[in-house]
Amino acid sequence: MTSIDSVTLEVADPTAANHFYATAFGLHTQVRVRAAEAPTTGFRGFTLSLTVSQPANVNALIDAALDAGATPLKPVTKSLWGCGGVVQAPDGTIWKVATSAKKDTAPATRRIDDIVLLLGVTDVAASKRFYTGRGLAVAKSFGRMYVEFAAGSSPVKLALFRRRALAKDVGVSPDGTGSHRLVICSSAGPFTDPDGFTWKAAPA
Fold this sequence. Notes:
By secondary structure, the protein is of the alpha/beta class. It has a single domain (4-201), classed as 2,3-Dihydroxybiphenyl 1,2-Dioxygenase, domain 1, CATH 3.10.180.10. 20% of the residues lie in helices and 40% in strands. It has helices spanning 14-24, 55-67, 124-132, 163-170; strands at 4-11, 31-35, 40-42, 46-51, 71-79, 82-88, 94-99, 114-121, 138-142, 146-149, 157-162, 176-178, 182-186, 191-192, 198-201. The strands form 3 sheets. The protein has an 8-stranded mixed beta sheet with strand order 5-6-7-4-8-11-10-9. A 5-stranded mixed beta sheet has the order 2-1-13-15-14. A two-stranded antiparallel sheet has the order 3-12. The model has no long low-confidence stretch (mean pLDDT 94). This is Glyoxalase. It comes from Actinomadura soli.
């Protein structure tokens, strides 16, 4: 099964970015950074989501991110589907922390259950065909709105969302130009997808 080994974020200050991700989320190997000054404005067309087991963990991770220098985009709120909040890291990457649980069942921790890379695409059906043609297996599919691929033992899950819907979900304008500032490391690479997202081959 095709899997994602890690994602690399292109940032202006790798030292500061590494410090932020280690301090805020405890991420070291799944999310990597490298120096780049590629021009970009507005929404970069993707988000990263952290799913956790309960609302207290959402608050713990969001608070840690804010303390480490993140900017709030959506406060932690409860809804019919669970609980979640959205922040923007100092390097510009948008992160959502969420749970489907509505009540806490244990003391708060910053334990992350899943990391999900959500790509905002122009045509979900076309991108779905593109990715299944490269060995990714569909786990969930909701027409032309959303597709989630099976992760297996992969440390990062992949999902596709319509670009405008993804931007609305995290509270930003869908407008944006320039580099995505993202490289996806996978056994499926190297290639560039229909929306310009770059994949590279994972080390053997």
